[in-house]
Amino acid sequence: MKKNEFSFIGDIATLFSTIPHHGFEPIGDDCTLIELGDDALVMTTDMLVEDVHFLRAASSAEEVGEKSLLVNLSDVAAMGATPIATMLSIALPANAQEEWAEGFMRGYHEASHKAGVALVGGDTTSSRDRITINVVAIGRAPKSNIKRRRDARVGDAICVTGKLGRSSKGLVDIMFGDLNTIAARHHRVAQARITEGVWLGTRSEVHAMMDVSDGIASDIKHIMEMSKVGAEIDTQRVPTDYDLRYALSGGEDYELLLTVDGAHAERLCREFEAAHGTPLTIIGRITEPTSDDVCWMEGEKQVEMDIKGFTHF
Amino acid sequence: MKKNEFSFIGDIATLFSTIPHHGFEPIGDDCTLIELGDDALVMTTDMLVEDVHFLRAASSAEEVGEKSLLVNLSDVAAMGATPIATMLSIALPANAQEEWAEGFMRGYHEASHKAGVALVGGDTTSSRDRITINVVAIGRAPKSNIKRRRDARVGDAICVTGKLGRSSKGLVDIMFGDLNTIAARHHRVAQARITEGVWLGTRSEVHAMMDVSDGIASDIKHIMEMSKVGAEIDTQRVPTDYDLRYALSGGEDYELLLTVDGAHAERLCREFEAAHGTPLTIIGRITEPTSDDVCWMEGEKQVEMDIKGFTHF
Predict the structure, then answer these.
(1) B256 has which bridge partners?
(2) Contacts of residue A126 in chain B, CB cutoff 8 Å?
(3) CB atoms within 10 A of CB A171
(4) Calculated CA dihedral for residues B1, B3, B9, B13, nearest 10 degrees
(5) A217: part of which helix (H) or strand (E)?
(6) Which of A2, B150, B153, B210 is most deeply packed, by most CB within 10 A?
């Protein structure tokens, strides 16, 4: 359950807290989790609505199919689990029930095939005028591989995979009609650091992990809150090819944000890059919980940042 | 994945058949299933769209909340599993984000509480003009309790819980403006034979089981197809308070349709009624596979039935 998009959501966790959890962990991570024997099964769900999350004029049906899948697989991999299956529900208006639906399934299937993820259930229905898609992704891992937001420790290095800001730069490109930039394509399709997440799941020096969906300035607060720690981030170290605003508060990058035992972080970064050909960069450290806000640095100097957060279109 | 609502769906199972199933059973039952140790976890998902599955003018928000949950719990119980948790995704237009959303959650929570089912995840988003709801229900059972559509055997008695036809009679009442009949209320809210399904799961004389969502005339064909058997149903034995047409081809009754070892069926029916205060009625028997159609009987006499099936509004 994502945070407080509407006022009534805030109370839901409290409302349901009196019902037995039957082995499921409380809401708060990228996925919900149930342990069965030595393994854990993780599950996540995301709903995509036409004209809110995508425009038929700006994204091809194939791209929407691919993105619907990948944003969910990203949540699974961010727990250190291997995505194994999905369930797909889709509501289609009359004008999307043939060509558009086929294109969507082509994109969804190709990305499923690439990730080795089965389709095990779902629902299809008609709708009056707009497309709605709901994907459930299921992952599996040895219990000991699971990474949670609550496991950051004081002294951990804060690390991030890849480079940040490309998806929101792509969204801005699209808004200006530049549909074919690399960033625009990246925004329309998303990525999922699946191999990387599963690899990081096997490493005991990785403590907390999540994917970056709303920008690190906003997402690191989930780790701070769940782990009851503070965070210091050096803006000069944040890996990006774009404006710092995109990199800190741009949404939908789907890179992995993790905290790593401070004594082993540099070695892990070297091994990660050797294994995956993608950088893993130390951008800060976990501190005692002094403030609800991130402590922003420019090298040795503390700076004020005015970060307003990012609104998905 | 429900059957062929659109032409592209027919190919989906084939399209995805080359991807490893990672322990999930192939599509074809009320729920998908994965075995983990001695237990099985079952999962199902259903999407409800405003103006397709419900009208805000005809159903209260509480009723939509209750029904969204119960139709999914019904699928879980129809496998013989105990529903333990759900995930809820909901897209809300501006005019449903406060009062309607609160009413919906009240209905969803009350029904969850009554069934002892946790809420373990979900997603909320805005939409342009209509409400879309997607529910995932998760159940758990000892592997040996799971009932599948493919397990009917020649000589089995065909049985059904409760009485049929009430939900479609209720829909007709609603269409004529009679919103407050017992049948109309039943249609708006649905029921789920949860205790009954779990109880039947523990009985080894029960072979195949599913819930009745499209009317028994249509639903029995899933058992016939999956089990490669024929079926003979005596219309005079079909339990209903309404017109036979409602009872055979009316949708959304959510009673349980099952096949039971012929030698033990009468005893099971007596024990079922004693345990649950609801009838379990023998309405026919499983035969060798002679035809794709059901063999309809009136007592000893074979009759022709012209059943066109039921279209959900």
Answers:
(1) B211
(2) 5, 49, 52
(3) 23
(4) 60
(5) helix A216-227
(6) B210
pLDDT digits 0-9 by tens, B25-40? 877 788 999 998 889 9
pLDDT at residue B311 is higher than 60: no
Chain B: give the shortest CA distance to residue A302, in Å: 36
Which of B134, B198, B252, B312 to mutate to probe the A interface, most A CBs <10 Å? B134
Tokens 């989930």, located at residue: A222
Domain A12-145 is found in CATH 1.10.150.120: no
Considering only CB atoms, A122 lies closest to which of B19, B45, B122, namely B45
Query: Mean pLDDT across the stretch A270-274?
Result: 98
Sign of CA dihedral B88, B48, B13, A92: negative
Residue positions counted in chain A:
313
Nearest-Cα distance to chain A for B287, in Å, is 30
Q: How far apart are CA B225 and CA B173, in angstroms?
A: 34
For residue A87, give the chain B residue with the closest CA.
B45
Interface test with B, best of A51, A113, A119, A143 (most B CBs within 10 A): A119
Question: Encoding tokens for residue A265?
Answer: 């972080």
For residue B172, give the H/E element and its range.
Answer: helix B166-175
Residue B2 clears pLDDT 50, i.e. is over it: no
pLDDT over threshold 60, residue B1: no
CATH architecture of the region A149-302: Alpha-Beta Complex (3.90)
C-alpha B149/C-alpha B166 separation (Å) is 24
Among A4-13, A186-195, B194-203, B283-292, the least confident range: A4-13
Pick from B145, B126, B117: nearest CA to B44: B117
Tell me how far the alpha carbon of residue A91 is from its chain's centroid.
24
Q: Which two tokens stand for residue A90?
A: 């889709």
Nearest to A284 by CA among A250, A236, A247: A236
Could you tell me the two tokens for A226?
């769940």
Residue A233: CA count within 13 A, CB half-sphere: 25
pLDDT of residue A4: 42
Chain A residues within 8 A of B128 when measuring between CB atoms: 49-52, 130
Residues of chain B with Cβ-Cβ distance to A90 below 8 Å are 47
pLDDT digits (tens, 9 = 90+) for A7-42: 555 678 788 888 999 999 877 788 999 998 889 999
Asked whether B92 and B128 are in contact (CB, 8 A), the reply is no
Instruction: Name the percent of chain B in helix, strand, coil, to the closest 5.
Output: 35, 30, 35
- Residue B185: pLDDT band (50, 70, 90) is confident
CATH of domain B7-145: 3.30.1330.10
Q: Which residue of B has its CA nearest to A99?
A: B8
Find residue A33's DSSP bridge partners: A42
Chain A and chain B share a number of CB contacts under 8 A equal to 229
Residue spans per domain, chain A: 12-145, 149-302
Cβ neighbors of A277 (< 8 A, separation 6 or more) are none
Least CB–CB distance from B37: residue in A34, A37, A98:
A37
Calculate Rg over the CA atoms of chain A: 19
Q: Which of A12-26, A108-122, B58-72, B107-121 has the lowest mean pLDDT?
A: A12-26
User: Residue B35 in 3-state DSSP?
Assistant: strand
The label of the residue with tokens 């359950």 reads A1
What is the distance in angstroms between the Cα of B264 and the nearest Cα belonging to chain A? 34
